[in-house]
Write a structure and sequence with these properties.
432 residues; 11-stranded mixed sheet; mainly beta; disordered N terminus
């Protein structure tokens, strides 16, 4: 009889469990907390529903009860104050375990979707991508490190960076409907700005970030050093008092304005009307097909190349067109200056302006040959129109990358003199 009674209890317990839908999950794990999500749906009364957890010592989080006939109970819980270790979380209804338990390691690594606001105030590594939903805030106060498998934070809500925060190998996608102000952070990775984050600002950052700007999005950069720019068509960028380390392309973008900025690597321009003022170019600048770029008071430490090799459908230099760039008050102090590449020359000589400096008070114009102590850049008058020029101009100020140019009869930057000697017919070693 006793065995029969126990069997009946087991049977009804099985029936009750079969009539229950329960689920618990860890949505996000932090340095000392977890964001839990749970769901309980049963067809009978429950006096005590709780989450039992432990790292060897059992404890519990009460989540409620259900009346006669049961019902549905769902929600979230923030459980904080955890120390390093493994924790298991189990839904328990009136003393009986329901559903499958979930385990999590608190180990200095973070990942998941925030259910509550979160602050990273110690060094952390991404164990999974982090999602910041609309209405939630992630604050980073220390160093955040990406891993080989996970390196992204997707921001639909708000993200704050405390001055001095560092991102190492972390990509942040700014997708929320608000602009972002990023100030005085370091590290490397990629910052990707989408249309809803238009108007965002990056300032006072000495880093190796790649800045990616999506279409119909405006981003401003001030007083920063960045690795590079990745500019989509129809994007907009304003950059001032900054340094860009790597090569990038400006192709059919809506707006580009650069002021007091140094570009250490090649730049390719395809169409539209980017504007440069008081900028320094330590490497090639290439104008693929015609455009309406403006260069004012800039210093070119290397070649300014004109060609018809654009992959875009743009008017060519070899074709008749009113589309052309403007040059005013610039200095060409490299071994080479403006030059045209291609089998066919420009339709008419390209007008370079009348107030630029070409490396010497008497530049090499037309068919003149550069001699041993000639410092001026060569200007091919079949390709360019130059009637007047300035007898002096600005030199390169940046110290990160020195071009091969003359200063006071010395060649600086390459340890060899790339000018043929009229006496020996060979190159001479640089004096400095």
């Amino acid at each position: 009889m006793k065995k029969f009674f126990i069997a009946i209890l087991v049977f009804f317990s099985f029936i009750f469990k079969c009539n229950a839908a329960t689920k618990i999950s860890v949505s996000y794990k932090g340095l000392d907390n977890v964001h839990l999500q749970y769901e309980v749906e049963i067809g009978y009364k429950a006096d005590e529903i709780k989450i039992v957890y432990g790292d060897g010592e059992e404890a519990s989080i009460d989540i409620g009860s259900l009346p006669e006939g049961g019902g549905k109970l769902e929600g979230t819980k923030l459980h904080s104050g955890l120390t390093e270790g493994n924790y298991t979380f189990q839904l328990v209804i009136d003393g009986v375990n329901y559903g499958s338990p979930v385990s999590v390691d608190i180990n200095g690594k973070i990942g998941g979707t925030l259910l509550y606001n979160e602050t990273i105030d110690d060094v952390a590594t991404l164990e999974g991508n982090v999602v910041v939903p609309d209405g939630k805030t992630l604050t980073i106060k220390n160093k955040l490190i990406g891993s080989a498998s996970y390196n992204s934070i997707y921001v639909d809500g708000t993200i704050n960076f405390q001055s001095g925060a560092v991102l190492n190998g972390v990509n942040i996608h700014f997708r929320g409907e608000q602009s972002v102000n990023i100030d005085s952070i370091g590290g490397n990775g990629e910052l990707i700005f989408y249309q809803k984050s238009t108007g965002s600002n990056i300032g006072n950052c000495k880093s190796k970030f790649l800045i990616t700007v999506q279409p119909n999005t405006l981003v401003s950069i001030n007083k920063s050093e960045i690795y590079g720019l990745q500019l989509s068509e129809e994007s907009s960028l304003s950059i001032k008092d900054s340094t860009v380390l790597s090569e990038f392309s400006i192709s059919k973008i809506k707006s580009f304005e650069a002021e007091n900025t140094t570009f250490l690597s090649p730049i390719s321009i395809n169409g539209r009307s980017p504007k440069f003022e008081n900028c320094e170019f330590a490497d090639f600048v290439t104008l693929h097909n015609r455009n309406e770029a403006e260069f004012k008071d800039c210093v070119f430490g290397s070649d300014l190349v004109f060609d018809d090799f654009s992959v875009y459908d743009l008017p060519k230099w070899s074709e008749d067109s009113s589309v052309h760039p403007t040059f005013s008050g610039n200095s060409f102090v490299g071994q080479s200056g403006p030059r045209f590449e291609g089998l066919n020359g420009p339709f008419t000589p390209i007008y370079l302006g009348d107030d630029n400096y070409y490396g010497d008070k008497a530049p090499v114009i037309g068919n003149m040959l550069r001699t041993f102590l000639t410092r001026g850049t060569e200007i091919n008058t079949l390709h360019f129109l130059v009637s007047n020029w300035n007898s002096s101009g600005s030199e390169m100020k940046n110290k990160k990358k020195l071009p091969s140019f003359w200063v006071n009869d010395y060649v600086v930057g390459q340890n060899c003199l790339p000018h043929p000697s009229p006496w020996s017919g060979s190159s001479c070693p640089a004096r400095r």
